[in-house]
Amino acid sequence: MSDPGRISASDLIEFAAEVTESLGAPPDRARVTAEVLAAADLRGISSHGVAGGTGLRELVDRIPLDAIDAAALPEVRQKEGWAVASMNAKGGLGHPAAMEAAHLAGDLAEEFGTGRVHVYDANHFGAACVYVEALIARGFAARATCTAGAWMIPFGGNRIRMGTNPIAWGMPCGDEAIVIDIATTQRAVSPAIRAVRGGFPIPPDYFKDKDGNILEGIVSYESLLAGSVLPLGGEAFGYKGSGLNILVELDNVIGGGSTKRIKTMRETPKSRVSQTFEAWRIDFLYPEEEARQRLADTVCDIREHGAPDMLLPGEREARRKAEAEANGIPYEEAQWEMLRGISADTGIRVPDPISG
After folding, report:
1. Would you state the CATH architecture of domain 6-186+230-286+313-346?
2. Which one of 4, 85, 236, 327 counts the least CB within 10 Å of its CB?
3. Rounded-to-integer distance, Cα 162 and Cα 243, Å
């Protein structure tokens, strides 16, 4: 008996790679794009997955408008003896450029102990944790940040200026990866958009309307689009998230990011962002195995002070990934419908659901 809510990761990657290649991407870059998108789905981060709002549909819609150059190859600039590099992504596919930059940060860390790569003139790169986990798999501690189109009024301000500016940060703790991936706003914007489109309520302390009034409950799509997501910390303590948000942007400016307000795709299909990837070795004071064990011991001590259902950063996503790898990725009907729409536009056949 078929289960329409499940799709295998391998089938999803093949579909996404074929679609991306059909849009003009080189095969290797199409494959990385597909793998990063599917990695988000495996972790339950469907907003950044193949059928998410920033997934294949974005590529299918924006590449024909010349808002993304599917064939562009990034250009890297380095100074001899420096542990920092910059990458001009040239408006190309965001996911392969970001993965290339992340691994370059790792290469620099192998040579210098720490490595940092700034990416500019870039497109959306999906779930930030995927790049951090790729570096953790190489034995590094790692961090990734990204700027985003303007959705937030700075704390104390009166006009929308800042993006959701996410941060992902992780450590290899024994054989486990502890990874946090958060927006510097109360939440990402996509959950609110999905709720409003589906006629569901949004919680308080999440969005303001254009007049500064808190939006909550069932609200109109128009009022949401004209409104502002609140900074992390909400109405009372948003100065913390707003400050962190601003520092993410300033850090990206160092590496070539925009000095001006970044337009969202509500305003233009050609919206450019910047990203920063960092990796550093954990064996500078202790041998790597001892360093890993010390981190693992710390995690154990934290767990001993938590309730049985306490989850550490990234643990929920790791459990979802293990379950999805074993049984297929759960896909809702709306996601299948998204795949069918992409298939209709590109001629690439949608994979069959997993059979029970």
Report:
1. 2-Layer Sandwich (3.30)
2. 236
3. 11
Q: How many whole angstroms separate alpha carbon 47 and alpha carbon 72?
A: 25
Distance CA 272, CA 67 (A): 9
265 CB neighbour count, 10 Å cutoff: 16
CA distance 51 to 45: 11
Beta bridge partners of 42: none
Q: Scan for tokens 């590094």, then name that residue.
A: 140
337-344 contacts, C-beta under 8 A, 24 or more apart? 338/51, 338/55, 338/56, 338/57, 339/15, 339/50, 339/51, 341/57, 342/19, 342/56, 342/57, 342/60
If you write DSSP's letter for every residue of 239-306 in order, what string do you get? HHHHHHHHHHHHHHHHTT--SSPPPPTTT-S---EEEEEEEE-S-SSS-HHHHHHHHHHHHHHHHHTS
CA atoms of 274 and 285, how far apart (whole Å): 33
pTM of the model: 0.96
User: What digits encode the pLDDT tens for the residues 287-312?
Assistant: 999 999 999 999 999 999 999 899 99
pLDDT tens, residue by residue, 158-189: 999 999 999 999 999 999 999 999 999 999 99
Q: Which two tokens stand for residue 184?
A: 């510097």
Q: Position 343: which residue type?
A: S
Buried b (16+ CB within 10 A) or exposed e, 42-78: bbbbbbbbbbbbbbbbbbbebbeeebbbbebebeeee
